[in-house]
C-alpha cells in the first residue's frame, strides 16, 4: 500500500455563517446592551406596551404634597378634584351610617369601603352617566356617588329585593355577591353595545380575591379577543376576607394579569385621589376609542372588617391598620386642595354639613321597615317557572298559611 492520502484542509473563512458556527471562544465579543426607554421598547416589543409601570402611579405624596407633573398622566381639572372631595366626604359619612345601621338591626350585613374612597368615587367620576357600571357587594359608596338613592342601594343588604334600583335607568348592574361573575356580564354588555354602534364603556369593579376566580379570566379574555370596551378596575385592598394577597398571586402585581390576555394594564396608588382619577380617565378613554379593554390595579386598603360579621383582628394587627390610616385619601386630597386655594375652612364645613344631612335623611328613611312578601322570592327567577320552583313556592305558601292559622289560634 502506498502512503495515506492527505486531504487538503480548506482555508478558514470569516463569513457571517462561519462566525455563527464558531465556538463561543471564537465569536466576536457581544456589544454591551443598552437600556431602552419604555417608549422605545414598546415600539419594538408589542408585549412591552401591555406592561404596567413597575411602581404604582402617584401624583400626590401621602401628606398631600404634589409630586412632579407627568405628561402621561396629566392632573385632572381642579373643579373635578373639588367635586371628588365632596363626594368622598359624603360617601364616607354614608359608609359610617350604614355600618351603624347594621348594629341597629336595620341591615342584615354591610361590607364597608372606608379607606377606599378615592377608588369608589374616582371610578364613578371617570365614566359618563350613559356608561355602565358593574359593582360588587362592596361598591355601595360608588353607587350613592353615582346618584342612586341610598335606600335603594341598601335594599339588598336589608333582606328585600336583590336590587332596589332600576339597573336600566341608572346604567348600573345589580351589586354582585358571587365573586367575579360581574366581569363576564361587563364584557358581554360592552361587546353588545359596541356591536350596535353605541358609544358605551363598561366599568367592572373587581376585588383582589376575585382575580383568582375563573370568571375574571374568562371576562378579561373575552373582552380582549373581541375588543370590548371594558375597564376592569381591581381594588387591591390586600385581603380577600382573611386571605392575604400573598396567597392570591405570586406575580409582582395584579396588574400583570392583563398581559397574558393582550390587555394593557396599569397600577396606581389607590389612596391618591388625583392619580386614581387620572389613570382611570386614561383607561376609559382607551376603551372608548375602540382599543379594547384596559386593566387597572389600585393599591388601597380596607380599614374596616370584611363585613360587620368579620373579626379582622384574627388576621391583621393594629400596626398595619395604623400605617394605612396615615395614607387617608380624604385628608390627602383636602390638604392638596387647600394648598391650591380650592378649599378653605368654610367650604370644608359646608361639605361636612351636607354629609351629615345626607346621613340623617338616610337614617330617618331606613327606620321604616319594608313590607316584604316571602312568595316574591319566586318571581322573576324564570320567565316560565320550572316544576321544581312551583313545588317550592307551594311549600312556602303552605307554611305561611300554617303560621297564620297558629297566630289565630294563639289569639283565641
Low-confidence stretches: 1-28
Query: What sort of overall outline do the alpha carbons produce when their principal axes are compared?
Result: globular
Total helical segments: 14
Q: In which order are the strands of the major sheet placed?
A: 1-2-3-7-6
Major sheet characteristics? 5 strands, parallel
Calculate the mean pLDDT score and round it.
90
* Secondary structure: number of strands: 7
Series of H and E elements: HHHHEHHHHEHEEEEHEHHHH
Radius of gyration from the alpha-carbon trace, in angstroms: 28 Å
Any chance you could write out the topology, listing elements then pairs?
Elements: H1 16-21, H2 38-44, H3 78-103, H4 117-126, E1 132-134, H5 140-145, H6 150-153, H7 167-170, H8 181-195, E2 202-207, H9 214-225, E3 230-236, E4 239-240, E5 243-244, E6 265-269, H10 273-291, E7 294-299, H11 318-325, H12 329-340, H13 345-366, H14 387-411
Parallel strand pairs: 1-2, 2-3, 3-7, 6-7
Antiparallel strand pairs: 4-5
Helix pairs in contact: 3-4, 3-12, 3-13, 4-10, 8-9
Q: What's a concise summary of this model?
A:
This protein has 412 residues and is of the alpha/beta class.
Can you tell me about this structure?
This protein is α/β, with parallel strands linked by helices and 412 residues long. 43% of the residues lie in helices and 8% in strands. The protein has helices at 16-21, 38-44, 78-103, 117-126, 140-145, 150-153, 167-170, 181-195, 214-225, 273-291, 318-325, 329-340, 345-366, 387-411, and strands at residues 132-134, 202-207, 230-236, 239-240, 243-244, 265-269, 294-299. The strands form two sheets. A five-stranded parallel beta sheet has the order 1-2-3-7-6, with helices on both faces. The chain is globular, with a radius of gyration of 28 Å.
